[in-house]
Design brief:
single chain; mainly beta; 2 helices; rod-shaped
Length: 182
């Protein structure tokens, strides 16, 4: 599995493969076995990286970010903030940060006439909240009245017609902003 490991300001993309014991960490062609030994409940650990051994204290990050695990590694009086995040999670988070409007944009539904006819009666107004299944208008066609209902819950954003308006098939009648936002 690929991870982004941030140590202070430095970022490394690594791949961790389970190994016995510990994990095998790969960065490019370099492959290093890594193992962490400690006593449960203690903050002192022995960190084995390749053929080197370090005694470290690990202090959990008091303010973790979603999807990012962090610790403060203390070694010989030096402190290193370390964060580990799955690479796929990082790519997704960066994409959302770059395109926040695409992620947060409300979904607008344009409701059109399903056949030509005459709008006999309108049951909605602009700015009105509707639930899925609420009556929107009556469409008179071929001496029959067809009741049109809301396909989604939301707020009527725009109403393009009035009672008595003749309409064509696929003509926009109103738009509904899905959700609660006006």
């Amino acid at each position: 599995m690929r991870f982004i490991v941030t140590i202070g300001e430095r970022e490394l993309e690594v791949e961790a493969t389970p190994s016995n014991p510990g994990v095998l960490v790969s960065r490019g062609a370099e492959r290093v076995p890594v193992r962490l030994e400690g006593v449960p409940g203690s903050k002192i650990y022995t960190l084995h990286v390749g053929d080197q051994t370090f005694r470290v204290a690990l202090i959990p990050d008091p303010s973790p970010t979603a999807g990012v695990r962090g610790v403060l590694v203390s070694w010989r009086g030096y402190e290193f903030p370390v964060k580990v995040e799955r690479a796929v999670t990082r790519r997704y988070r960066v994409l959302l940060r770059k395109q926040p409007q695409a992620h947060r944009a409300p979904h607008i539904h344009t409701i059109t006439s399903h056949m030509p006819g005459l709008i006999a009666q309108i049951f909605i107004t602009e700015g009105q909240r509707v639930e899925a299944g609420d009556r929107l208008w009556l469409l008179e066609a071929m001496k029959m009245e067809n009741e049109v209902r809301a396909p989604v819950a939301g707020v009527i954003e725009k109403l393009y017609i009035q009672s008595g308006t003749p309409v064509e098939k696929d003509q926009p009648i109103c738009t509904i902003r899905e959700g609660d936002a006006p």
